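[09:14] KT: can someone run the structure on this one? pasting the chain below
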Amino acid sequence: MTDAKHTNPLNTPVSRRTAVKAAFSTAAFGVAAFALAGCGSTSSSSTSAGSDASTASAASDSKTITVGASPSPHAEILAQAKDDLSSAGYELNVVEYSDYVQPNVALDEGDLDANYFQHQPYLDNYNEENGTDLVGAEPIHYEPMGIWSNKHDSLDDVPDGAQISVPSDATNEARALLLLQDNGIITLKDGAGLEATANDIADNPHNVQLVETEAASVARTLDDVDFGVVNGNYALSAGLVDDGSPLASEASDSEAAQTYANVIAVRKGDEDSDKTKALIAAIETDKVRKFIEDTYKGTVVALF
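[09:31] RB: done, structure tokens below
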């Protein structure tokens, strides 16, 4: 899919209207391939981590915080906050979802206190398409794109005519092009930013050839190309981090990192509720940051 509105909520905006027509079945974050983009997954379903999904209505319980999340990395990260929430007097109930629509439906309907699976552009698009009023209460992490290779050990000597696999959807391809520019491989026209396309390449000193590939499949092309620009969640699900690290990745202060940070989402008006404050405080700790660093090895990066 080449339209940015049809890719996954970890990395690019999505149109729920189209998603519902297609039963919105894509890869799920972290395990997605998310990943995060993003990416196959099953159609909408949910299970509870640590409690029965039927207790999702416990969102009305003042001492239970019910959060919808994708299994990885979101539910895994939330699990690390459980003890601190308990110390603060709250029970954490995590309901896992394998699709990108139901967590927002459940939040809007009041079955959840919050959800944690999406970035702000996806949430904004969901609200626009569905007339909802959900808000991002806090950015928690981002999943940087990285340049990987099974053939080269560095980016110091990019061969002329090198083939580079990049995601084919609009937003992820723009991020890939910006990352290639940041590492001196290409130069884009001024102001291209997160709207950049291959047509915006102003200078290509190595005459690299872009191989446009569906985002979830870029990692599988690494034996056939010189380099691949892979979403963090796809790198995680493909096991790339088990064998090494990317040659380069998006910086935490990059435009992409700030734009596509994964957020804790709540209903408007609940941004400063006691539950929301307690949840965010329990996540934004040194313990959780260390867990993210040790577990995801740069494919998920804490923003706190």
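[09:33] KT: thanks! Residues 1-7, 12-58 have pLDDT under 50 and may be disordered.
[09:34] RB: yep, looked fine to me
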